[in-house]
Design a protein that fits this description.
51% of the residues lie in helices and 13% in strands. By secondary structure, it is of the alpha/beta class. The protein folds into 2 domains: 173 residues, NAD(P)-binding Rossmann-like Domain (Rossmann fold), CATH 3.40.50.720; 108 residues, Orthogonal Bundle (6-phosphogluconate dehydrogenase C-terminal fold), CATH 1.10.3660.10.
């Protein structure tokens, strides 16, 4: 028997959208699609009824369910927007409620582990599963942090698999374009290496610096003199600890590799300080300054 046809690739409208996790990421997607007029009904799924009630009050969702298998029934699109460490458990939970025409995607910051979890817990629906990662966020969390413009002009990476139905990929990418995003494709492995460098490592370093100061016996005085440089460098240390714990562990091999490279760079700076090698320090500082300026220029941020 042939598999049921999925919705047409060019159809960006979603009749019933189910979002697991209606905080910043999931709530902002719901708000963006509502603003664009691309969704009819939004169902929120979460652990806390109070959070779901808040999302309803804010107009992000129409209905809320704490039972995920019930919540996804009848949805033509399901978005997993909870901490990435919960992906396997959630896929196993929703599998009985996923229909043959339902497309399931995620918003996790790591992809190799998500793919492995899907193959273990969602094997019967792999043609309907589209791994994805919206490159947007904020240190704030919860439904009140959601905003319709979060994805406008921001990148979304999809990492479709060999078994993923092309129509499902097109539908997921159309959804994110409706939210204002720019689509890119990578393999799961390419994705995890890239974001270990430009996202996961910066978060690890920001958490480490704030923890170092917080554990210092003189931390009150240190924090009292911290100004814009400390604030800007450590802004992302205000992010959700559970979410970033899961990301770090899920991508630990790529993250360890990049952390080793950073450690070697710091060791070179330390050696220059020990020997008083101002020229070496200046070379590294100038290289970093110029590279950052070029990145900002190329991305239109300069």
């Amino acid at each position: 028997m042939n598999a049921p046809h999925l919705p047409l690739p060019g159809d960006a409208r979603i009749e019933r959208l189910a979002i697991v996790g209606v905080g910043l990421i999931g709530g902002s997607l719901a708000a963006a699609l509502r603003e664009a007029g691309r969704v009819d009904t939004v169902v929120g799924i979460g652990r806390s009824q109070a959070t779901l009630d808040e999302a309803i009050r804010l107009g992000l969702i129409d209905h809320g369910f704490t039972d995920a298998a019930t919540g996804v029934r009848g949805a033509d699109m399901v978005v997993l927007a909870m901490p990435v460490g919960q992906t396997g458990r959630m896929l196993a939970t929703i599998a009985p409620g996923v229909g043959p025409r339902t497309i399931v995607t995620d918003a996790g910051s790591t992809k190799s582990d998500v793919v492995a979890a899907a193959r273990e817990h969602f094997a019967a629906h792999m043609r309907q599963f589209v791994p994805a990662h919206p490159i947007a966020g904020d240190e704030k969390s919860g439904p009140s942090a959601a905003r319709a413009n979060l994805y406008r002009g921001r990148n979304v990476v999809t990492t479709p698999l060999a078994e993923t139905d092309a129509a499902a990929v097109a539908r997921v990418e159309a959804m994110w374009r409706s939210a204002g995003a720019v689509i890119h494709r990578m393999t799961p492995q390419q994705h995890d290496d890239v974001f270990a460098t430009v996202s996961h490592l910066p978060h690890l370093l920001a958490y480490a610096l704030v923890a170092q100061v917080a554990l210092d016996p003189d931390h009150e005085r240190l924090f009292s003199y911290a100004a814009s440089g400390f604030r800007d460098f450590t802004r992302i240390a205000g992010s959700h600890p559970e979410m970033w714990r899961d990301i770090a562990l899920a991508n630990r091999e790529a993250l360890l590799n990049r952390l080793d490279g950073y450690t070697a760079q710091v060791a070179q700076l330390r050696a220059a300080l020990v020997t008083g090698d101002g020229a070496a320090l200046e070379r590294t500082f100038a290289l970093a300054k110029d590279a950052r300026a070029e990145w900002l220029r190329r991305t239109g941020q300069g």
